[in-house]
Amino acid sequence: MNIMSIAIALHVIAIVVWVGGMFFAHQVMRPAAVKTLEPPQRLQLWVAGFKRFFPWVWVCIATVLITGLWMFFQFPKPPLFMHIMLGLGIVMMLIFFHVFFAPYNKLKKAVVDERWKDGGAALNQIRMLVGINTVVGLITIVIATAGKYFLA
What we know:
Elements: H1 3-36, H2 39-72, H3 80-101, H4 103-112, H5 116-150
């Protein structure tokens, strides 16, 4: 086993955890929570869920960034699909940073203060941004796996 195979494996695992977690939250957990929980309980569930998921996202971002940049710079002239992956990955990271430092903080404060309408607005913003990030993540996966064939 060489360093490149380890880097690829870590990179893919981090992407699966991050994008898979977003897909699950957006497409599975949110509709189930809306259907079964009243707003106060739903908002409390999301705060508790994000509190457990977001540390994993931070680890995934660090892993993806370190392994991705290392692999990128192993090529004297990285192919176009790698440039696209890098750009989309940075976009995903910036979206997450915004979610974490803005609406997530608003959501936590609103839940503590029992301001359910404000919490709902913050959660709706998170939902929209996670939806966008999930789509960007899925596009990035397609480019990672088939980009060299599409862009050849």
